[in-house]
Design goal:
It is a single chain. The strands form two sheets. A six-stranded mixed β-sheet has the order 6-7-8-3-9-10, with helices on both faces. Strands 2-1-4-5 form a four-stranded antiparallel β-sheet, with helices on one face. Helices cover 32% and strands 26% of the residues. It is α/β, with parallel strands linked by helices.
C-alpha cells in the first residue's frame, strides 16, 4: 500500500516564559493508506501536538512531514479532525453541523451527503435535532460524521471518547471500528486508554514521557483481540512494561 504520511526526524519545541521546552523529539513514522494507528502515552508527552502538526494546525520545529509526498503547510480538507469535545455548533441542527464544511456544494448534493453520513453513524431520525438534545455518545457520532463528510484522506482523533462513561466508550469504539472497516479512511487516534489502543489500532505507537519519543511501534498480528483473551493480555502487558517497571502488588483482605 502507498504511504500517506512520512514523518522524518520531527522535533517540536515551545517557548514558554523565555525558556525553550522540547515537546517532541526525533519522531520517525511512516503510515500507509487505510491504516488505523493508535498513539498511546502519558499525559503531556506530545501526542496531541503531533496530531495537530499532522493536521497542519501546528508547525514543526525541525524535520519533515509529508502527506501524499507533499509537505504539510497548513490545514487541508485532506485531514479531518475530531476532538475530545464534540465542538458541534449549538445553534445548528445535526444535519447542518455535519454538512458545515460542505457549504460550497449545491444544496441538493450537500443534503444527500448529510443524510449519507447521518446514516453511517446511525443517527437516523435525529437529523433535525440540536446538539443539546443528544447524549454524549450521539454527539461524538455527529462529530465523527462531520469529520468524514468532506471525504478526507486521513481522520485524526484526539481522545474522542475521553469524556464518555465506560459502557458508552466501548460502544463508540465498536462503532468507530465499523466505520473504519466500511470507509477505509486512514485513521490516527490519540488515547490514554491502553485497552482502547489495542482494540482499535492495527499498529500502536507507544510514546515516552516529555519530550515525547517513540519507544516502540507494535504491529498487531492476526489473533483474538477480544478483551480478556490471551492475545489481548499479551499486548497489554507489552505496553504496560514501557510505563511501569514492576506492577504493584496489592494485598486485599476479603474477610473484612
Amino acid at each position: 500500500m502507498a504511504k500517506i504520511l512520512e514523518i522524518k526526524n520531527l522535533y517540536k519545541k515551545f517557548n514558554v516564559d523565555g525558556k525553550e521546552i522540547e515537546v517532541l523529539k526525533d519522531i520517525n513514522l511512516d503510515i500507509e493508506e487505510g491504516e488505523f494507528i493508535t498513539i498511546v502515552g502519558h499525559s503531556g508527552c506530545g501526542k496531541s501536538t503531533l496530531l495537530k502538526i499532522i493536521a497542519g494546525l501546528e508547525t514543526l520545529s525541525e524535520g519533515s512531514l509529508l502527506r501524499n509526498g507533499k509537505p504539510v503547510e497548513g490545514p487541508s480538507p485532506e485531514a479531518g479532525m475530531v476532538f475530545q469535545e464534540h465542538r458541534l455548533l449549538p445553534w445548528l441542527k445535526i444535519k447542518d453541523n455535519i454538512g458545515f464544511g460542505l457549504g460550497a456544494l449545491p444544496k441538493e448534493e450537500r443534503a444527500e451527503l448529510e443524510l449519507k453520513y447521518i446514516h453511517l453513524v446511525h443517527l437516523d431520525g435525529f437529523e433535525n435535532a440540536y446538539p443539546s438534545q443528544l447524549s454524549g455518545g450521539m454527539s461524538q457520532r455527529a462529530a465523527i460524521a462531520r469529520g468524514l463528510s468532506t471525504n478526507p484522506k486521513i481522520l485524526l482523533l484526539d481522545e474522542p471518547f475521553g469524556a464518555l462513561d465506560a459502557l458508552t466508550r466501548i460502544e463508540m469504539q465498536q462503532e468507530l471500528l465499523r466505520i473504519w472497516q466500511e470507509q477505509k479512511t486512514t485513521m490516527i487516534m490519540v488515547t490514554h486508554d491502553i485497552d482502547e489502543a489495542i482494540y482499535l489500532g492495527r499498529r500502536i505507537v507507544v510514546m515516552s514521557a516529555r519530550p515525547g519519543e517513540i519507544k516502540e511501534v507494535i504491529k498487531i498480528q492476526t489473533g483474538d483481540r477480544t478483551r480478556g483473551s490471551a492475545d489481548f493480555a499479551f499486548y497489554k502487558k507489552r505496553i504496560y512494561e514501557h510505563f511501569f517497571e514492576e506492577p504493584q502488588k496489592l494485598s486485599v483482605d476479603y474477610t473484612i
